[in-house]
Amino acid sequence: MQMRGGSSKGVYFLASDLPADIMTRNNVLKWVMGAYGDPRQIDGLGGADPLTSKIAIIDASSHDGCDIDYTFIQALVGQDDLDETPNCGNLLSAVGAFALESGLLKRDGDTAHIDVFMTNSGNRCRLSFPISDGLPLYDGDARIDGVFGTSAPVMCHYANLAGSASGSLWPTGSKRDDFLGFSATCVDNGMPVVALRATEFGISGHETPDALNANGDLKQKLEAVRLLAGDAMGLGDVADKAVPKMCLVSAPVNGGTIHTRTFIPKICHKAIGVLGAVSAATAAIHPDSAIYDFATLPQSDENDNQKALTIEHPSGVFDVTLTLASGSDFDILGAGLLRTARLLARGEVFVPKSVWKGA
Ligand code: NQM
């Protein structure tokens, strides 16, 4: 099926419909997307953009307390490669609907609760969304920035996201580092992110994504910092990887917590990724981080362990509620957020017989 998950779009498969051999599977997926080096992805279903060149593989879960296993794969635009390192919280928001649509799971009542194991990182997320006669409802009043109109809400409750790809919430062992003279906070709360101070790069941080994408000097500096930060975060040589993402932060201008421009990792996002936003929010609330002084934080109430944060991005805002350990201002137990999703198409996708003859 082709589905919109949050503000991304991808091709969703049952694991049992793909080749069991991983090399053959990956070759098939590259041909499905048209992602064997052509940046236009003419000969495949990919949309020639990182946000529309995504794959989700779903299987019955082999993990206690979970219903399905979800594997995310990023088809790298313009490269003959896939990256299985990162998560994608946007595609994740449609995996519950896919499980019902494909018959992998059955639910009755008005609301489906589906517990997802994210195989890329070992994290868990509970999805809750409205259903009727066992199938997802897609129409509704929920609105998310980056998507036209309104749809039914998908509530996403993540638990223990720390160290998703790097093994540690603060993967360099420090809350604030210096790379080539630029202050940085390397954080991994669901997504490895390098949070940077926009003004140190000679920009305000409010430029349009197109203007930033056209700024060759900025992109060169960001990539030089990314290669050093990726290594320092234990991710190895990240030259051909989709992580870490680079988040240029400035003070909020629309009543939010921080203002952001995120590179994923070499193209500026028109909004912000789900787990990228959770990681940026995590850096924003820690007093030792490189971006803390930009943040306008909600008043903390001693008895309230929920912190509602608003991450401003180029096309609006992303709201995330962090659940904190009791008595702590920055020990994070989980994150809750709203997404929407929609089934776009269902059918067969074809690859050349020389790649795979089929099951
Ligand atoms: O951060 C963009 C997106 C994403 C990934 C990216 C995502 C996430 O907007 O969880 O959703 O960072 O590549 O879909």
Q: What this model shows, in words?
A:
By secondary structure, the chain is an alpha+beta fold. It folds into 2 domains: about 170 residues, Roll (Diaminopimelate Epimerase, Chain A, domain 1); about 160 residues, Diaminopimelate Epimerase, Chain A, domain 1 (Roll). About 15% of the residues lie in helices and about 30% in strands. The protein contains 6 helices and 18 strands. It has an 18-stranded mixed β-sheet that branches. Strand 7 and strand 8 form a beta hairpin. The model has no long low-confidence stretch (mean pLDDT about 95). The structure holds (1E)-4-oxobut-1-ene-1,2,4-tricarboxylic acid. (1E)-4-oxobut-1-ene-1,2,4-tricarboxylic acid binds next to helix 2 and helix 6.
TL;DR?
This protein is an alpha+beta fold. The protein has helices spanning 22-33, 89-92, 95-101, 209-213, 216-232, 274-285, and strands at 2-5, 8-14, 54-60, 68-75, 82-83, 111-118, 123-132, 135-136, 154-159, 177-179, 182-188, 192-197, 245-250, 258-263, 306-313, 316-324, 332-339, 341-345.
Which descriptors would you attach to this protein?
18 strands; Diaminopimelate Epimerase, Chain A, domain 1; 359 residues; binds (1E)-4-oxobut-1-ene-1,2,4-tricarboxylic acid; alpha+beta
